[in-house]
From TrEMBL:
<dbReference type="GO" id="GO:0004176">
    <property type="term" value="F:ATP-dependent peptidase activity"/>
</dbReference>
<feature type="domain" description="Lon proteolytic">
    <location>
        <begin position="228"/>
        <end position="345"/>
    </location>
</feature>
<dbReference type="InterPro" id="IPR036034">
    <property type="entry name" value="PDZ_sf"/>
</dbReference>
<dbReference type="GO" id="GO:0004252">
    <property type="term" value="F:serine-type endopeptidase activity"/>
</dbReference>
<keyword id="KW-0645">Protease</keyword>
<dbReference type="Pfam" id="PF13180">
    <property type="entry name" value="PDZ_2"/>
</dbReference>
<feature type="active site">
    <location>
        <position position="234"/>
    </location>
</feature>
<dbReference type="GO" id="GO:0030163">
    <property type="term" value="P:protein catabolic process"/>
</dbReference>
<keyword id="KW-0720">Serine protease</keyword>
<comment type="similarity">
    <text>Belongs to the peptidase S16 family.</text>
</comment>
<dbReference type="GO" id="GO:0005524">
    <property type="term" value="F:ATP binding"/>
</dbReference>
<dbReference type="Pfam" id="PF05362">
    <property type="entry name" value="Lon_C"/>
</dbReference>
<protein>
    <recommendedName>
        <fullName>endopeptidase La</fullName>
        <ecNumber>3.4.21.53</ecNumber>
    </recommendedName>
</protein>
<dbReference type="InterPro" id="IPR020568">
    <property type="entry name" value="Ribosomal_Su5_D2-typ_SF"/>
</dbReference>
<dbReference type="GO" id="GO:0006508">
    <property type="term" value="P:proteolysis"/>
</dbReference>
<feature type="domain" description="PDZ">
    <location>
        <begin position="99"/>
        <end position="160"/>
    </location>
</feature>
<dbReference type="InterPro" id="IPR014721">
    <property type="entry name" value="Ribsml_uS5_D2-typ_fold_subgr"/>
</dbReference>
Length: 348
């Protein structure tokens, strides 16, 4: 009896290990289509649309031994090494913060471009320097964290990203910097003793952080975006189209279920994204009729280094043929390509 119980306990431990132990690998698979109007609201909008604009997601999960083995048997599940997903210097929390920052930047660009296309003015504010990650063993280790927004150094208000560099440049190892920052909407202050930046190519004193500019945009009418559960920049194009659709009196959807993906860049071009094949599969499964795919150009140098690399549009077309979808795949290099395509559509 005791022997049987021991065997059951061992089996239970093995099953728990296979199901729960996290490997240094991720699994990517098709996600879902989400109606963008559920996330974006323009004040006094024109939303009597017969169709819809949808953003596409991929599902990402950290692999367990069981899900890893299962993914190997599935055509539309991709195993990815942890370094293909996260930067080598960031932990999981910093990865999540970076994804949310990319989403925030994508929202900024979407508002800016949509209002430009609608002929409306916007006001841009510089908010500070956003901390992306803190280097282990660096000066800020344990003092600053990813997501902090630096607004002042040594009493000087930071008015642009270069100013942070200029204020720190004259300082040497062992010098101190008083940094004022915002964390969870609360202002805090800390004095940091500068150290040599870990793993830097040249030896110099610094805070030991990587960072990005933090800006906000003021619009009239006001745009409200609720995207707490979505990370990354790939919804930028569809955010832009949805905002513009709500600003204009005409119905850009013409009654169609419109989906797409692509980073919205500040010059109006549409940037390449990852996992487009899985987004095409998800869009087809969720009944989308039109799918905008970034028609990015692969440079000869990059093509020589990675011969298998192709544009998002080429991958989307190939995937659409594989699954036999009737969904129309539309190449877009700029937001204007998407707008012009929608404007020439005959209403359903």
């Amino acid at each position: 009896m005791k022997k049987k119980i021991s065997i059951y306990v061992v089996l239970l431990v093995v099953i728990c290990f296979l199901m729960l132990y996290r490997l240094d690998a991720y699994i990517m698979k098709p996600g879902s289509a989400y109606d963008v109007s559920k996330f974006v609201t323009v004040e006094n909008n024109h939303t009597e649309n017969k169709g819809s604009m949808s953003l596409m997601t991929v599902a990402m999960q950290q692999a367990t031994p069981f899900s890893y083995l299962w993914a190997k048997t599935q055509k539309y599940q991709k195993l990815m090494d942890i370094n293909q997903v996260r930067n080598p210097l960031e932990d999981e929390e910093e990865y999540n913060v970076r994804q949310l920052k990319l989403m925030s930047d994508s929202q900024f660009n979407a508002k800016y471009i949509a209002f430009q296309k609608a002929g409306l003015q916007t006001t841009i504010h510089f908010d500070g320097v956003f901390v992306l990650n803190v280097l282990d063993g660096g000066a800020s280790d344990g003092l600053l964290k990813a997501g902090d927004e630096i607004i002042e150094v040594d009493g000087h208000k930071i008015s642009n990203q270069q100013m942070l560099v200029d204020l720190l440049k004259p300082k040497e190892l062992g010098d101190k910097a008083t940094v004022r920052f915002i964390r969870n909407k609360n202002e805090q202050e800390v004095t940091i003793t500068l150290k040599e930046i870990p793993r830097a190519e040249e030896k110099r004193a610094g805070l030991g952080i990587s960072y990005a500019e933090s800006k906000s945009i003021e619009t009239n009418p006001k745009v409200t975006m609720k995207t707490e559960d979505i990370g990354g920049p790939s919804a930028g194009l569809m955010f832009t189209l949805e905002i513009l659709d709500q600003l204009l009196k005409e119905d850009l959807t013409k009654g169609y279920a419109v989906a797409g993906t692509g980073e919205m860049l500040v010059d109006g071009s549409v940037g390449r994204i990852g996992g487009i094949d899985y987004k095409v599969i998800a869009a087809d499964r969720d009944g989308m009729e039109i799918f905008f795919a970034p028609d990015d150009e692969i440079s000869p140098e990059l093509k020589a280094k990675h011969p298998e690399l192709e544009s998002n549009y080429a991958t989307a077309v190939k995937t659409a043929k594989e699954i036999g979808t009737k969904m129309k795949i539309v190449p877009v290099k700029t937001v204007d390509d998407a707008i012009n395509y929608l404007k020439q559509l005959q209403p359903k």
